[in-house]
C-alpha cells in the first residue's frame, strides 16, 4: 500500500485548479492534469476517485482558502460596513476565479449523492462569519436587521443566483457594486454607514 503524500496531493490540486480555471470541466482530461502535475495518471487515482472528485477537491480547497482569507481580513477594529464590503468583494472574486463552479455543480452526474458534509461545514462557517460582522454592525447601531442569520445566507446566495446563467455575461465590477448597494440599502441605519 502506497503512503499518501500531502504535498503531492496539493501539487495535483494546484495543477488541476489551473486547468479547470481555464477550460470547461468536460474538456479537462485527467491525463492533462497528470502531465501538468508531473505525476503518472495512475497516481491521480491514489488520491482521487474520479475527475468529479478531483474537481470537488479543487473547489473545496479554494473555498477553504477563501474562508481563511476572510477570517484574516476581518478586523474587529474596523467599521463592520468595511468588513462586510470586503467579504462581498472577496466572495465575488472567488466566484470569478472559479468560473465553472456553477456549471459543474449543475452538470456533475450524481452531485446530489456526493458526501457534502465537508462542504456544509464550510458553508456554515462562511454564514457564521458574515453573520458575526452583521451582528457587530447591529450592536454598533450601523445596521438594522431583524434576521442577520438570513442575510448571511442571502449574500453568497445572491452571487450564486446571478452567476447561474454564466459568468462571462456579467461584468464583475457591476455585479459587485449592485450587490453592495442591495445589501447596504437593506440593512443600513445611518447615512453613509456602508
Question: What key attributes describe this structure?
Answer:
194 residues; single chain; 70% helix; 9 helices; mainly alpha; Tetracycline Repressor, domain 2
What would you note in describing this structure?
The protein is an all-alpha fold and 194 residues long. The protein has two domains: 1-48, Homeodomain-like (Arc Repressor Mutant, subunit A, Orthogonal Bundle), CATH 1.10.10; 54-187, Tetracycline Repressor, domain 2, CATH 1.10.357.10. Helices cover 70% and strands 0% of the residues. It contains nine helices and no strands. The chain has helices at residues 6-22, 30-37, 41-47, 51-73, 80-97, 101-107, 117-139, 148-163, 172-187. It starts with 5 loop residues before the first helix and ends in a 7-residue tail after the last helix.
- CATH-derived architecture of the largest domain: Orthogonal Bundle
Query: What is the count of distinct domains?
Result: 2
Gap between N and C termini: 56 Å
Low-confidence residue ranges: none
Shape, per Cα inertia axes: elongated
* Percentage of residues in helical conformation: 55-70%
What structural class results from the helix and strand content? mainly alpha
CATH class of the largest domain: Mainly Alpha
